[in-house]
């Protein structure tokens, strides 16, 4: 079974989850070789072999997220419309970005609600280059926001409260993210520029409160029907709960609650307090089928090449193994046949001296059996035929073969006489299955007679 490894590369921190075990390391250089060395060291510390499944998490502050309503339910039409939307609405050329989307569902009237995620290609190149020295390729590149939702689903014990719309506020080292979750899906997301490092300054705290309120207004405008009553705080530290509660209490009735689990708490004693590990831990517990996944052509091509090379290697080894087995089986069977043939020849020679007398006895028994068994005797057949033959039927000849068939020919005055005779024979014990093969009229001395042939099988 493959070991799942979740890796999030931020500006200053390398966050890793190997299974449910967490690790974090400061990033001193953005050079791919340096990042590859750090990733390799963490994998070795956690005793990861070559059979690993690597998932990369892209931080939300590196992604542009838009909610788009499109008048279609067809996936192909939606992708075409999103391509046109990208050209018109983003300040980048289409060739400079990668994009992915999640269909949040049809409103039942005319539009499909689409969550669109856009990121620059340069970031993906750095990610791929960081893994090439390790001879590893990420299985997929995910968005951190949906990892936070999985983390909340895993950490909150009272699952019933997650059925209603709720907010998630994750405070990381240098930014925060406010998420609106509706129907257990990411409905919308807003990035707040202040993180733990900025919140150490009183002036930045005030800015954080202002931006948090603006983010709440923005989310409310995108989903005005969502009645949110609860906010889950995750990430850097529980000490910011008081600040968040104070900001919410002034203008809203939303209750704030800090969320953590055993894995996070066990790791918390030794980790930097400025770093949020919620997203990687969330994806470690679950990756949903409809999570936003960025598809890179380079990764697809390299994966296909690796898969084909692996398949060719397996196929070659299998063919050689099968060929060796077939040759071995053929040689064994040939030796067995030769040995069996030699044994048969020896037995034939030893038994041929005594078989002639037995063959003579068998032939005599066959001849005698024709006369001993009354049912198989030609005389019995003639006797029964004579006994059942009516006056209007004349039998001219018959043909009898032992244990095969019995047929006879004759003539009569009328066809009904022949049919009645055939039925009489079919109902008898000795001539069951009697059938009239043919009847033919002919004239004899100014009289018309009907020739027939009856067969008993």
The whole-angstrom Rg is: 46 Å
Strands of the widest sheet, in order across it, are 3-2-1-4-8-14
Number of strands: 18
The main sheet comes to: 6 strands, mixed
The tally of domains stands at 3
N to C succession of SSEs: EEEHEEHEEHEHEEEHHEHEHHEHHEEHEE
Number of helices: 12
What structural class do helix, strand and pairing data support?
alpha+beta
What level of helicity do the residues show?
40-55%
> CATH topology of the largest domain, anyone?
Nucleotidyltransferase, domain 5
Annotated CATH architecture of the largest domain: 2-Layer Sandwich
Strand content: 25-35%
Extract low-pLDDT stretches.
Answer: none
In the CATH hierarchy, what is the class of the largest domain? Alpha Beta
Q: Round the mean pLDDT to the nearest integer and report it.
A: 85
Tell the overall outline.
Answer: elongated
* Terminal residue distance: 69 Å
Describe the structure concisely.
44% of the residues lie in helices and 28% in strands. With 457 residues, the chain is α+β, with helices and mostly antiparallel strands. It has three domains: 3-295, Nucleotidyltransferase, domain 5 (2-Layer Sandwich); 303-369; 376-456, 2-Layer Sandwich (Threonyl-tRNA Synthetase, Chain A, domain 2).
């Amino acid at each position: 079974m493959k070991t799942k490894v979740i890796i999030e590369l931020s500006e200053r921190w390398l966050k890793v989850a190997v299974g449910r075990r967490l690790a974090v390391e400061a990033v001193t250089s953005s050079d791919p070789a340096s990042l590859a060395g750090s990733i390799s060291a963490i994998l070795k510390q956690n005793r990861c072999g070559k059979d690993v499944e690597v998932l990369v998490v892209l931080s939300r502050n590196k992604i542009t997220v838009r909610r788009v309503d499109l008048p279609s339910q067809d996936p192909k039409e939606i992708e075409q419309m999103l391509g046109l939307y990208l050209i018109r609405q983003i300040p980048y050329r289409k060739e400079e970005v990668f994009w992915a989307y999640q269909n949040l569902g049809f409103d039942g009237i005319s539009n499909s609600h689409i969550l669109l995620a856009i990121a620059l290609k340069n970031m993906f190149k750095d990610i791929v280059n960081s893994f090439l020295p390790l001879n590893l390729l990420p299985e997929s590149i995910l968005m951190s926001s949906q990892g936070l939702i999985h983390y909340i689903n895993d950490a909150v014990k009272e699952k019933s409260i997650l059925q209603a719309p709720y907010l998630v506020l994750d405070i990381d080292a240098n930014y925060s993210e406010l998420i609106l979750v509706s129907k257990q899906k990411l409905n919308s997301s807003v990035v707040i520029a202040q993180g733990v490092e900025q919140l150490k300054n009183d002036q930045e705290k005030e800015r954080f409160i202002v931006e948090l309120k603006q983010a709440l207004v923005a989310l409310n405008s995108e989903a005005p029907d969502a009645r949110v009553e609860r906010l889950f705080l995750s990430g850097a530290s529980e000490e910011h709960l008081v600040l968040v509660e104070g900001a919410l209490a002034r203008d809203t009735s939303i209750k704030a609650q800090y969320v953590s689990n055993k894995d996070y708490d066990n790791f918390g004693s030794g980790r930097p307090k400025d770093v949020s590990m919620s997203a990687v831990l969330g994806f470690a517990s679950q990756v949903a089928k409809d999570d936003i996944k960025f598809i890179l052509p380079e990764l697809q091509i390299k994966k296909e090449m690796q898969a084909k090379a692996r398949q060719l290697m397996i196929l070659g080894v299998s063919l050689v193994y099968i060929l060796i087995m077939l040759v071995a089986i053929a040689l064994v069977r040939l030796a067995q046949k030769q040995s069996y043939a030699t044994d048969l020849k020896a037995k034939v020679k030893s038994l041929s001296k005594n078989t002639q007398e037995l063959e003579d006895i068998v032939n005599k028994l066959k001849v005698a059996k024709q006369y001993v068994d009354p049912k198989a005797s030609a005389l019995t057949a003639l006797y029964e035929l004579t006994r059942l033959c009516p006056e209007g039927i004349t039998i001219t000849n018959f043909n009898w073969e032992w244990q095969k068939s019995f047929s006879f020919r004759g003539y009569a005055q009328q066809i009904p006489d022949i049919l009645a005779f055939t039925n009489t024979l079919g109902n008898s014990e000795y001539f069951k299955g009697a059938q009239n093969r043919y009847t033919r009229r002919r004239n004899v001395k100014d009289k018309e007679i009907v020739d027939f042939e009856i067969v008993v099988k």
